[in-house]
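Continuing from the previous page of notes. For each protein in this section, the sequence appears first, followed by its structure tokens. Read the first protein now.
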Amino acid sequence: MPEKIERREIGKGIFLSRITDKRAKFNVVSINFITPISEETASEYAVLARILTKSNNKYPDHAKLNSKLSSLYAARLDGGVLGTDDVQFVTFTVEYIDNKYAFQNEKVGSEAIDILLSCLFDPLLENGAFSQKVTRLERQAVINEIEAEINDKYSYASQRIIEILYEGEPAGIRTLGTAAQAKRVSAKSAYKAYKRLLEHCRIEIICTGCSDFSDEKKIITDAFIKLEREEIFSFESKRSPLKNEPKRIYEEMEVTQSQLALGFKTECVNKSALKIMNEIYGGSSSSKLFINIREKKSLCYYCWSFVNCNKGSFSVRSGIDKNNIDKTEKEILIQLEAMKNGDFSDENIEYAKIYRRNFLRAYYDSFKHMGAWYLIRIYEDDIKSPEDVIEEEARVNREDIINAARSLTLDTVYILAPKD
């Protein structure tokens, strides 16, 4: 098991955390900028994350940067964006082998961190902005990723239910923005976004691995302590309000498989009960949705549920034949009523807790996932280890689960069907 997280503030709105686990031979350091997500900036940050990890003044093109990373025992550098609730994370990560496993006492950690910080603090610029060529290439890469979504109908339907479920809320904005927004990103606008990132965003630096990170912490602290910071963006994830009446959206496209999504809202604040209820209802292969709708009645190709405790939302996603849309929707609601009436066994509860326990302990198997776990816990201002959450969920009882199910109210129905 890793050590408990250690976290301290090293600058205005800048926090450095360490989680050490001696079992592995490498380390992961991520620098995460947290900002409220908006339509104006989502695509800018998506393009910016790619620009900054392609070069810097020390390594002025991608080939030289990759060559240097390869020389550090195939160290990896990544940049990207992640959307969760009403915020966007702009994340830069470097993975590298620990010093004690390198030949001739090489300082792999120091060099890897130096590359990461050079990308952030010494980017390649042209006339006070980013390179026109690099910006054009990375902008097109983001546009391609956005437009490719339409070819993956599962991803498209998943995004549409989010947009409708959180209509008018920041959480409904696409993490990458839209293709139209991305096309407007220029070398100058990306550079303005870069300055905004450094000056105004909350910064969470998370070091996870087998090291004690003494060298890395000093290098990182020395770099960030020089950063001139202004007013730090505040962010708060608000519960999503229930619509006055359920909203139904029906779309037709050139598809062979229909997609059905139901969105619910809840006022339940018992996160553990919501998680266990979700597993019994539709979160695993032993759930009511899977066994009754897919296995027994063969109404769908897949059917599963997902809960967002911070936003107070709950959704069910299903892939079906067009002829089974009404039957499947009806059966999903029937199974929910069964949950509300306590129609599940003690064995179902125990299995759900075992499933959740195994799922949570899997975070310990990946330093990258462990860092992501604590990043979300820090964002939620509720820093707990996976084991802490396992203990909380173990205390959930039947009444808690029934109350969680009864708290769900239908908010949104989205259907994507083939054209006749």
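Done with the first. The second protein uses the same format. Note its length before scrolling.
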Amino acid sequence: MSKIITLGEIMLRLSPQGCNRFVQVDNFNVIWGGGEANVAVSCANYGHDAVFVSKLPTHEIGQAAVNALRRYGVDTRHIARGGNRVGIYYCETGASMRPSKVIYDRAGSAIAEADPADFDFDAIMEGADWFHWSGITPAISDKAAEITRLACEAAKRHGVTVSVDLNFRKKLWTSEKAISIMRPLMKYVDVCIGNEEDAELCLGFKPDADVEGGNTDAEGYKGIFKAMMKEFGFKYVVSTLRESYSATHNGWKAMIYNGEEFYQSKRYDIDPIIDRVGGGDSFSGGLIHGLLTMPTQGEALEFAVAASALKHTINGDFNLVSDAEVKALAGGNANGRVQR
């Protein structure tokens, strides 16, 4: 299997049990997660050598985060240790017409205040096949944005394929700031993943599609995919297409373009959703695995969409499914019968 590097922040997620609201509980479940950490766990579950790069404090809470990754086989040797705190986010799971809610408490986290000297990216990228990052990491701080750039440069020096999940987070930065940081980073990227909102807010591209109204016909995306590929030189442009009927009922599909042909996946009707946090990360992890191991972009995309559909049924940020389970769903086995 392949060596896959991811760079980002793993956070302590505190969530009420079930669909309870923040204001009605007196205890929280401890869950670990965060964009690129979630991708690393997915890739490790598919049998790859998955390496997560970050910075965490030396105290026991920092160690608990490291241990959460080690539990699922992620290589943590390049996590720098130091700094004062682990980022926290609170997540309230919605239901029906009540949306899920996230509150961040991550300012001043170890990775946000990390220095380039904390990482030897040439050593980290040595022998790697793939490097993945998301728009969340450069949004954390200006220092984190600089570290992201240095990692991308090292990846290119070592001939590593680079993917990005645009992942715009309005609670972390403005669209103007995002565009100023993200557009220059695109010259390092081979595989660009994002939805229509991410492309507009991070890169300034807008598709001709009414996603809020449920109109996610692929035709509206073809023009933007071609324009993005022409401007930035991507090898693949990929978009997830989510139809949000309620907090617990979504339609889910995706499309991919390799400069020659467009491919749209089958659509999954996900009802009920157990936990959609990490859904996009599970898609990215599945896509990376698919593009590395499967002969066509269509097969890679079907694997990624099936992997993400399964993630929506699992509590927590991590997608705890195997290659075989995803392939069974992608192959049409969606009845949920007990496996005996």
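What the second structure shows: Residues 142-157 form the longest helix (16 residues). The chain has a mean pLDDT of 93. We return to this in next week's lecture.
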